[in-house]
Amino acid sequence: MGQEKRKIDQDVLADLLCTERCLTNLYNDAVNESSGNMAQQQMLNLLMNQHDIYASVYAELSKRGWIKDEPADYEKIKQLKQTYMEQLDSL
Q1: d(CA 51, CA 60)
Q2: Calpha distance 21→41 (Å, rounded)
Q3: Which UniProt keywords apply (predicted)?
Q4: How far apart are CA 43 and CA 30, in angstroms?
Q5: How far apart are CA 24 and CA 57, in angstroms?
Q6: Cβ–Cβ < 8 Å for 44, 3
Q7: C-alpha angle with apex 44: 88 to 61, nearest 5 degrees?
Q8: Which of 15, 23, 49, 84 is most deeply buried (CB count within 10 A of its CB)?
Q9: Measuring CA to CA, how many Å separate 27 from each of 32, 36, 41, 65?
Q10: Distance CA 60, CA 42 (A)
Q11: Burial of 35 by CB count in 10 Å (0-12 exposed, 13-18 middle, 19+ buried)?
Q12: Residue 35 vs residue 1, higher pLDDT
């Protein structure tokens, strides 16, 4: 039963992380579309709260070893940058 509970916990946290990612995207869109200063400030506050929650969930997944942080490969970054720069130049 322990392995089954672990899998359920892992699935719940992974779903929560995905949900938080979606919510941050929605709040970001709301900030961009806010017409009034007060509404925009409220949306920014909500966005920051969602980012905090996302970071907490991510940290929990990482702590449990269910998500792996890998160092960025400099060569891959350089290659991606070059690809995007070429695409930008072609616009």
Answers
A1: 14
A2: 20
A3: Capsid protein, Virion
A4: 7
A5: 13
A6: no
A7: 80
A8: 23
A9: 9, 15, 11, 29
A10: 27
A11: exposed
A12: 35
And the tokens for 27? 């709040």
Model confidence at 1, in pLDDT bands (50, 70, 90)?
low
Amino acid at 87: Q
Using CA atoms, how far residue 35 sits from 27, 40, 42, 44, 75, in Å, is: 14, 7, 12, 13, 42
pTM: 0.72
Look at the block and give the residue holding tokens 């890998």.
70
Long-range contacts of 20-25 (CB under 8 A, 24+ apart): 20/50, 20/53, 20/54, 20/57, 21/54, 23/50, 24/50, 24/51, 24/54
Task: Report d(CA 33, CA 27) in Å as an integer.
Answer: 10
